Structures are given as C-alpha cells and as structure tokens.
Amino acid sequence: MEALIIVDVQNDFAKPGGALYFPGAERVISPILELVKEFRENRLPIIYTRDWHEDNDYEFGIWGVHCLHDTKGSEIVDELKEALKGYERAFEVKKSRYSAFYGTNLEFLLKELGITKVHIVGLVTHICVLFTVEELRNREIETIVHSNCVDSFDKEMHKFALREMEEVLLAKVI
User: Fold this and answer.
1) What is the SS3 string spanning the chain?
2) Average pLDDT in the 83-96 region?
C-alpha cells in the first residue's frame, strides 16, 4: 500500500514570521495540497510530521528556538490543517530530531498500515526530508520524492540532497 508523508509543513518553517522561515518556503504548500486531495480521493494514508521540541531542546543550540511544543509555530499550516480535517486516514507523528523515525512510532505505523511505497514531500530538503528518506530506504521502502513539494533555504544543499536521494539512496525523484 502507498502512503504520503508530509514532513514539517509547519508555521515556523513555511510561513513568514516563522522562526526558521525562508523566502519561498510557502511555495510547496499548494502542490502538497494537490497530493493530499489525490490521496484522500483514493483513501490512502497520509502521515504528517511535526517538528516538536521541549524547552531547552538540544537543537535550539544549532537552530535557535523553533517548533516549541504547544506554540503556533509548531502547528501545521492552516491550509494543510483544513485539507486533512476529518480524514480518518491522516496520522500525526511528532518528532524531535531530523529523521521522522528517531524516537517516534513511524516504523510501527508504516508496518501496521502495510506501507510498501511512500511519496514524500515537505521541508527542509537537505535536513528532515533527506534523513527521513534515508531511513525509508534503509527499510527498503520504495520512496518517491516530489521535487516540486520540497525546498530549502540553501539551494545548493537542496540540489545536493535531491541528487543524494536519487543516486545514493535510490529514491525516485520526480
């Protein structure tokens, strides 16, 4: 079975004024919403991650305070919230590190749902998207990265990550 994984499309990354917002990040929202619509119409699972940090989290020393638990910045963007509203096959995974697998129930969820193929989208390409794709491929899960639905504040690293995912991890980049 196929699933859509949406990585960290949250206010702190995708909306102006967000702690780690970068110009253009919001461009991924519209094409992601199209995929959400398609997956809903086909009754396929949609898993969305939320970067979720407790007070004084280790990552704050690297990136500054972002996606602090129970704040507006940690919420998924309103457009996505609305698109997923009432969909019983939408699943949230809160994570505190780059990989959506680290310290979460994602592996259990994928097994429980019988997922063998994942379409992945979200922010940021060379950080949380890349490390989640690496973990998917380590588990031999077929992975499709939608290049129009991922982005980064560093365009060279964005290109590198897409290439790394395709050439090294053997994910399909479309």
Assistant:
1) CEEEEEECCEHHHHCCCCCCCCCCHHHHHHHHHHHHHHHHHCCCCEEEEEECECCCCCCHHHHCCCCECCCHHHCECHHHHHHHCCCCCEEEEEECCCCCCCCCCHHHHHHHHCCCEEEEEEECHHHHHHHHHHHHHHCCCEEEEEEEEEECCCHHHHHHHHHHHHHCCCCEEC
2) 97
